[in-house]
Structure formats: structure tokens, C-alpha cells
Amino acid sequence: MDFVHGDRDVLDVLRARRASGSRPGRRKDKLRVALVVEGGGMRGVYAGGMVSALESLGLRDSFDEVYGTSAGAFSAVALAVGKGSKAGAVYYEDLASRNFINYRRALTGRGPLINLDYLVEHVLEKAKPLDYELLAGSDIPVRTVATRLDTGAAEELSGLTCADDWRAALRATSCVPFLCGPAVSLLGAQWIDGSVAEPIAIERALEREATHVLVLLSRAPTEKSPKGGEHPLMSVVARGLDPVVAEALRRRAEKHASAMQLLTGKGLLALRPTVDCGVNGLTTNIPRLRRAEETGAAAVHALFAA
């Protein structure tokens, strides 16, 4: 299976925990298992499908913590609050809309290309309400990563206890420079998309002493890795940014490659979509997004059936 890469021992640990009924915070083993979810804008539908499948297979309680960057943070949150079944569907049911991605709005100066207010204030409040109190007290902590504007470094947004802080954190981790409007204020700093400085939080999970890590990736084996961003527009965007942020964005491909190299280590397993469904960071084609969700879910089912 070319869409699976790394140490299959991760599967054995997840299966064993499921079979024993092991729950977060009440483990009998001495292991620490993390789930790391890559972002990628609308590419996140692949990982959303994977998260949906993990939940349907009864594997939610097998993880001790979840790391999410950019779009990956929303799938991480969905799993933590027991709403993983909608982690992929939200893309074609709610986000494949001009309310969310609108080129005309951006070209006419009426607003940003990507409207995070619509996502956080409409989708997560009305269409698919997010229980922030449940999120703050989840037995599986969600560790959201964003890029600090003044340093260009990635940091974990921690100490989030109220709904307003979580709303700001979800905006911050997915605030793509220029495409989503101004940086987001939180915890006394300004923040932009976490993928700018840390595309995949594998090293962060290891630094927190994870013994086993399952990584959900948003590109099929046949797709090329990013070269500075999720969309051709990003190469143009970089020219108009603060030099610190522009440099972080230019180094994104290098950081992505470094993260992928970690997957040769013990206790690390990565899962990709089985096929390329033609989805990029700004895709709003509903049939393609549906296929991408199904593809992500199929990868998980194939992995655990093997």
C-alpha cells in the first residue's frame, strides 16, 4: 500500500487500546499516542474523511492528544468533541460556497478571498455547532499550531478556556496571509496560518514525548509536495508580506520535507489519500470534494483491514 508509510506498530497499539476499552487519562499502558493532522485549505477534506473513518471504527479513544494545523485543526477539534463524522462533510456541505471562497469579493475589495468569519461565526455556530465548553474540557487535548506574526515562528496556542479564545485560535491557525485578511489577535500577539512555519506538527508531538504518532496527510502519493504554499497565488502573496513572514513562507517546502523525513523513525506512521481527486487548497467543486472525503475514509478502512 503506497499510501501508508512508516512503523506499523502504531496500528497494533491503536487496535490493542480499542480492544481493551482503554480511555484517555485512564491508560494501563505507559504509551502516549498522538494524532497529527495536516492542513492544506480545502485539501483538508481528505483528512476529514480519515478522521470520520477513525471515529466510525471506534478508534477515537485510542489517542491521547491531537495536533492540528490550519484546516487540520478543524478535523482535530471534530474528533476531540465526538463529531468526527462531519469532519469531511463540512467541506462540501458548507465550505464549497461563495460565502466562504469568493474571487469576485477579493478582486472588488469587498472582503478577503477566504472568509473565516463565515466559517467560525456561521458554520460552527449554526450549520454545525461546535460545543466550545466540551472542547475546552475534552479528555483528548487539541493542540492547535499558529505562526506568530512578529517572529515568523510556529507556536502552540495553549491555555484556551473560553469560547472566544477558541474561536480566535481557529481563525489564527487558518489565517492564510493576504487571502484571509489581517492577522488574528490572541494571547497578546498577532497570528497567521500555522502551516506557514510548521506544515505538519510531527516534531512537536515528539517533543511532548509521544511514543507513537499517526499522521494524516492531505496529498496522494502521486501529488507533488508544496513549493512555498498550497496554491500558486501564494508565490505572489509572499512578495507583499513582512520580510520575516515572507521568509518563513519561502522555507515552507523545506520544513515540510524535514517533517516527512521524520517518518522513518520508530513509532511514526503516515497515511495519505489513496488517489488524487483533483482537490487543491481553494477547490469548491462539490463532486470532487465528496470523492476526496470518500478517498480519505477508504485509506483508513484499508489500513485497518490489512
UniProtKB/TrEMBL annotation:
InterPro entries, sorted: Acyl_Trfase/lysoPLipase (IPR016035), PLPL (IPR033562), PNPLA_dom (IPR002641), YjjU-like (IPR037483)
Position of sequence motif GXGXXG: 39-44
Gene Ontology MF term list: triacylglycerol lipase activity
Catalytic center residues: S70 (nucleophile), D193 (proton acceptor)
Keyword Ligase: no
Residues annotated as domain PNPLA: 35-206
The protein, known as: Putative patatin/cPLA2 family phospholipase
Organism: Kutzneria buriramensis
